[in-house]
Amino acid sequence: MTPSPLAQATLAAALSDHRLARTIARLARRLIVRLGDPLVEISVAGARLLAPLSHDLPLYRRSFVHYDTALPRLASHLQTTRHVGLTVVDVGANIGDSAAALMASPDTRILAIEGDQRFFQLLTANITANRTQWADRVTPVHCLLGERSETVAASIDVRHGTGRLQPSKRVSAMQTLAEVVARHPAYCNAALVKIDTDGYDIAILRGARPWLASTQPVLFFEYDPHFWQATTPDGGRLFGELAEIGYGPLLAYDNFGWLLWSGTVHDQRRLQELDAWLSGRASSVYLDFCVFPATEAQSFEQFRTSEMRHFTSSVRQCRKESRQLTRRDGPYRGS
Asked: Can you list the alpha helix ranges (DSSP code H) found in the chain?
């Protein structure tokens, strides 16, 4: 598995500061993707990762300064406050880009779960290529997760660097997160669970309910009614279900990584309003929720304070980015 020189040059031009060259290169990129979607090499937190040219992560990281940055800050906070190595379960690991960002913190170990065959091959290749930095701290697992163990007529549809299950004549086996973690005892007491599966996040959380209730990891998951309504029509009940197993304070981020709101899983009126705000947007806007156990309210307040400091100290960057939002395509839905 090697990057294509033509694709690599096209990506470099698509990320350039020259407006005309960037526009032409992005048109060329779309054409090359249609003809075969070759591999390129991208850099994430000092790691070199192979990715399909169609992967939109490099473009969005260039345009949006806060994009995909909350999770590494959260991991750093947890590692600092707990004074121990951080154990993470990464569901929807994709090519390993979230893992790369998290592995920048020392003593982090990750169970990286990915369901798509090509992404999993790239994930394992990237783990091997970065073994000097990562050692054996990333464990890849190839499987699809859901609310229960079952066989479904569906397959993963991959576009723009992300994938989601779609009805298909092919049959796929689903497992629960609790079952997968049980087979990897080193991760049974994980401190952080990240889930990004374009619509199956709520089903996966429900399938892990007994384990979450006993272990109480901090949760970081995508929330998009446009996708989860097809698989979990009663997904709006999620926050009440999290309250029942001991969760409390939360932060909400928009899909560009900006801090939107803080509250608790008990704020039903506000959560209903967020659902209404997201409705009808066809995933042009979605949220990432960071939810802490109720017993870790003090740690949550420390993290919230540091997040407020982070965002209020980058006002100029936010103003520049807000102008870009009127000129860019829709949001990348990556890992």
From this structure: 5-14, 19-35, 57-63, 70-82, 97-102, 117-129, 131-134, 177-182, 201-207, 209-215, 225-231, 238-244, 268-278, 297-312, 315-324
Distance CA 13, CA 116 (A): 29
Tokens 């049959």 -> residue? 171
Residue 255 pLDDT > 80, yes or no?
Answer: yes
pLDDT at 325 over 60: no
- Domain of 118: which CATH number? 3.40.50.150
Q: Is residue 2 part of a domain?
A: no
21 lies in a domain? no
Question: Apex CA 42: angle with CA 35 and CA 256, to 5°?
Answer: 95
**pLDDT value, residue 54:** 95
Residue 309 has pLDDT above 90, yes or no: yes
> Which range, 54-63, 275-284, 322-331, is most confident?
54-63
- The total number of structural domains in the chain stands at 1
Q: Is residue 171 part of a domain?
A: no
Q: How far is CA 173 from CA 59, 90, 214, in A?
A: 33, 19, 26
Helices (H) and strands (E) in the chain — how many of each? 15, 13
Q: Check: CB of residue 194 under 8 Å from CB of residue 101.
A: no
Q: Model-level pTM? A: 0.89
Q: Work out the end-to-end distance of the chain between its first and last CA atoms, rounded to an integer number of angstroms.
A: 21
